[in-house]
Structures are given as structure tokens and as C-alpha cells.
Amino acid sequence: MSKFGELLDEKTPILLAFYQQEDNGLFEMDSTLKSVAAALGDKGKVIKIDIDKNQKLSEALRVRVLPTFMIYKLSEMVWRQSGIQDANTLISLLQDHVIS
Fold this sequence. Notes:
Helices cover 37% and strands 25% of the residues. It has a four-stranded mixed beta sheet with strand order 2-1-3-4, with helices on one face. Helix 2 links the parallel strand 1 (14-19) and strand 2 (45-50). The chain has a domain at 9-77: Glutaredoxin. Helix 2 (26-40) packs parallel to helix 4 (87-95). By secondary structure, the protein is an alpha+beta fold.
């Protein structure tokens, strides 16, 4: 988890998307996350986290519903939501946390 802490210490906002490989909606989520990453460019990051491969992290962050999205900025969680989200909503939320 030390790598996780280092990752979150960045000035750019980071969107974490918790999912499970066996989820039927994974293709739709991939498309959404690619759109978000393209819109952000180098002003933010999008990271997918498979809960089966990262059980300790998922438990520590109390991820219970999939997908779960979190936005971190400067090591602090600034937004969290479970359930399907559209690209425009995620882009807007991340842009609110971009440092000008």
C-alpha cells in the first residue's frame, strides 16, 4: 500500500475505478474511462483497480458495490460514488479539481 500512498500524493486529480474482471458491464466502463482519460490529457489520471487482485486495498477503502469511483487530490479523497457513471459527469468532476 505504500505505492498507493505515493500515487495519491500527486497534484493532479486521480480517478480510481474499482471493478471486478467478471463484471458484465466492464466493456462499457472501459469505454467511459478511456473517454475520461482522453479528455483530461496530462491534467489528471485514470486508474482501474481490480478488487480481486487488490483485496487489501479494496477492504481498506471499504469498496462494497461495483463499480466504485473515487477522486483523490493531494492524498485526500474529494469525491466517491458507487454505481455506473457517465463520462461527462466524471470529466466534469475531475476538471473541478484540476490546478490551473
